[in-house]
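Sharing a chain and its predicted structure for anyone who wants a worked example. Both blocks are below, sequence first, tokens second.
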Amino acid sequence: MFQKIDPKALDFNPFSAIGERWMLITAGAPDHCNTMTASWGGLGVLWHKNVATIYVRPQRYTYEFLETSEFFTLSFFDEAWRQQLSYCGTVSGREADKVASCGFHIGAAGEAPYIQEARLVLVCKKRYWDDLDPDHMDSEALEHYDNDYHRMYIGEIVKVLIP
């Protein structure tokens, strides 16, 4: 059973949690959703709100769910789940039921689906999106692309859940 905590009570390093240990981005409805592994993103404050920023390429199946959903969740895991996170980053939800294959279970935080096996879940209300513009990138950033620029989503963190 998850409990809600104050975001200011979080005691973790977002650089290692996102960039090294990864997270799952989940969007859609609890009865029809998709999840994907991400290692790009950030946490901060914008418009006097606690926010999470994520980046998703348009060809990803989760992108379709993000486009039509008001909420998305970010799920963080212990190292024991590394293999499942790797799987969720390499297999498309169009081709396989990643949730079932990984032994995950979907929970519902209102309209927002999340992965119940997580050690931390951020429930985010989508507040802004925009496509990354190659005209605004330096040459090092452009090395990450082949004309498939990410869409950036900024979500207000409306709930923080821990088991």
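Comments welcome. The mean pLDDT is 96.
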